[in-house]
Amino acid sequence: MALSKKEISILIEIVFSIVFAFIFLPYFYENQDNNLILMDDLIGKIIEILIFTVIYFSVAYSLLEFVFKKKETKDERDDMINSKSYKLGYLLYEFSLFIFIGYVCSKLQNKELLNLTGNQELYNGFNLTDVGIVFLILMLLAFISIVKSLYQFYLYRTV
Amino acid sequence: MILKNILKEVRQKKSYTQEELGNKVGVSRQTIISIERYRYKPTLELAMKIAQKLNIKIEKLFYFE
């Protein structure tokens, strides 16, 4: 299966999203119930993510340019494929936003109900922390990015 | 009704490669391949450019079946 430069650059994005989900999301998942997470620790993690992103894309795109020296023309087919895939990404983003808001509201409402029952143990275990929200947002963004890029790749192979 | 074309035949008759024709009309080789395989419907502007470069009438190059 011969892949074009554009298809490989989409694969680079997909691999990044998957690697990001496997390397960095567990940190936020493991700490989502931890309200004591220090700001320094969080900033350190964000810097780590930024450094990883810069190194990953620099190396990947340098290698891509080294292997495919010839510059590819961007034309109306690329525009059509991009608009279709970004439209899907946008729809997923809107849908996820509703799910996210619904999830947060239901969690807050359930917490209030648990408070009324007086079960302190259950009440304490039902927290929605800042890290939990960050985890949810990052997870949704990674998921949307993977689906959008996969659809883009599919269109490049079939259109 | 499917929009078909005789691009491949005309291009080969004029001894152009897909790459050459793509360069002449400002699109990639993949786009020419997609048009020849009826996978991608070009815009009117691109269809006219291709017809002009191949010196053929647009309605002869593209047809409905």
Spell out the key features of this protein.
heterodimer; A: 159 residues; mainly alpha; 6 helices; B: 65 residues; 434 Repressor (Amino-terminal Domain); two-stranded antiparallel sheet; 5 helices; 9% strand; globular
Offer a concise description of the structure.
The complex is a heterodimer of chains A (159) and B (65). Chain A has 159 residues and is an all-alpha fold.
Walkthrough of the structure:
The complex is a heterodimer of chains A (159) and B (65). Chain A is mostly helical. Chain A has one domain (5-158). Chain A has helices at 5-23, 25-30, 39-67, 76-117, 120-124, 130-158. Chain A is elongated. The model of chain A has no long low-confidence stretch (mean pLDDT 87). Chain B has a single domain (3-64), classed as lambda repressor-like DNA-binding domains (434 Repressor (Amino-terminal Domain), Orthogonal Bundle). The radius of gyration of chain B is 10 Å and the shape is globular. The N and C termini of chain B lie close together (5 Å). Chain B is mostly helical. The model of chain B has no long low-confidence stretch (mean pLDDT 95). Chain B has a two-stranded antiparallel sheet with strand order 1-2.
